[in-house]
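Antibiotic biosynthesis monooxygenase
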Amino acid sequence: MTISIFATIRPKPEHREAVEQALRVMVERSRAEPGNLRYDLFVREGGELAFDLFELYIDAAAVEAHRQSAHYQAYRAATGEWVAAPVEVRLGRALDLAPFNGAGA
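Structure:
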């Protein structure tokens, strides 16, 4: 069963650039995980300083492998003091996904 994760990261203003760079490393490494189907990074427009991640995995085992990966653990250790609030994570189960064609945005 495909699992989606929607995560929101709210960096402290003085750590915005550092958090973005750490997230870009996460994107690159997470996309290379065998069970990862998508790992997309967004920045909010307008007032609130926040980054959003949309992640898609083939199953729960792939999510757990991601959370146990060295790059995820390193990201969590590095950014803990850089965020203004706990990361908001929402899990979802796909009901209707567009076909993945492998083309980048």
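The chain has a mean pLDDT of 92.
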